[in-house]
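User: Could you write out the 3D structure of this protein bound to fe (iii) ion? I've included everything you need below.
Assistant: Certainly. Input first, then the structure.
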Amino acid sequence: MSETTEQAIRAEAIELLLREKGLVSEAQIDGIIQQYNARTGPLNGAYLVARAWADAAFKAALLQDGTRAMEPFNFSGGEVQKLVVKENTPQTHNLVVCTLCSCYPWAVLGLPPRWYKDPAYRSRVVKEPRKVLGEFGVNLPDSSLVKVWDSSAEIRYMVLPQRPSGSEGMSEAELAELVTRDSMIGVELLD
Ligand code: FE
């Protein structure tokens, strides 16, 4: 049995027990999932990225101190003690993982995708990042440097993807629509 399946069964058992004891209701649990999936989603992150592409001063502030730069927006949802944003450039590609468990910046990216929690992704991405990237359809030139950032309960990483060509003159709202969740984890290139 894979670790993921064991974890899923365990989570289901805990949920059932909490519900039976009347500690939480199904509606509360659904509400939390709904908040991160539908309301938070990766939209907050996309907004930060679009803003950074459009405004050099904001970009500098975001890269210097992500936590402080996102403070004024009051994104709901904890799970981000400290946000660190890493910028992709033609020379450097950044990639995010949590090798220990599944730490992820919920407030800016919503719920982590299933594969992010997969033990295979978590261990392989450190050992063979280019191969894993290739499986996601990201093929980088040999000259580019790949940096893997290991998230923790204290530090949550997010990638600032490269601005796609042909996006000159777009509004921030239009730019935000170009940004995908996977590009902010570092497993997708926008073009
Ligand atoms: Fe974790």
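Residues 182 and 188 are 5 Å apart (CA to CA).
User: Perfect, thank you.
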